[in-house]
Amino acid sequence: MTVNETGRDFNFSIFRINCVFRSAGDLNPAYFVRIFSRYFQDIYKSKICGTPSLDCGFCQGRNDCPYAILYNPEHTEDIAGIQIIDDASVPFTIRPFFERGNEVSFDLVMAGKSARAFPAMVATFRRMGFRGCGTEDLYFSVESCASLDSRFRPVSDEVDPAKSESLVGLHPIGVEEALSDAPQGPMGRISVHFITPPLLKDTQQGDVPKFKLLVRRLRDRLRVIGTIYCGAEPDLKMKGLAMEAGDIKTASVRRSSARTSVLYEGPLVNFVPLLKLGTFFNVGRSCAYGQGRFEI
Known about the structure:
- This protein is an alpha+beta fold.
- It contains seven helices and nine strands.
- The chain has two domains: 11-175, Alpha-Beta Plaits (2-Layer Sandwich), CATH 3.30.70.1890; 177-295, 2-Layer Sandwich (Alpha-Beta Plaits).
- The longest helix is centred in the N-terminal third of the chain and has 20 residues, at 29-48.
- The protein is globular and about 50 Å long.
């Protein structure tokens, strides 16, 4: 697959990898967070890298290496005063999407030029499925791939990666398309539904994040991956949002086995674009692997 550079605008691509597991087992979002956060990076590096013991900073092939693109880009120092924490610089998210029975799809959201690594990620999925993963040694096969739009609808034909090296075409999604179905108009309340709990610095597992902390971490994540992978931050008028977020209060919390829903109250209209764009990229530690996934 050839990925064209998309200029200096914040953009991302979404791909779907359709898999069939040998047995359904106890497949759920939390399970896949554990599996991918524990195994994916090591298997990805062993699949891609010819000298896995060599630090990326000393590798002559770093600029063209799919591993370095995702995990060791050239500009991972602090960006404009942002301390890069909680996996903020990892430019992708893996989102399990359950079909039926033993069929599970994984939606991959990849920022800017990181989409060049999509074929290598598919190859890693295939290796994980062949070798088995987790304590249960779950085996699966990768059946097909497709490119999606911002509403996770296919915009390309499905391709069998075992039969084609070209995989699927690229559909870069800009901020305008990403926000096309965001809530509109004046807003005094908004519900944030956490499908997997966010793991943020200075909070305990299971804590509901204060709105100000949630906004700061989302802002930092989008600024970092935009700067490194797109050459530009998303134009969301984020300056001053962290200060304004102090006026937003937690009105109620509802927990169920599937999600935690938090109702925030206050002058929220300026935060909707940030929250909506953040739904594609998750927030907090292990966000690349499905932790901190939420909807609004």
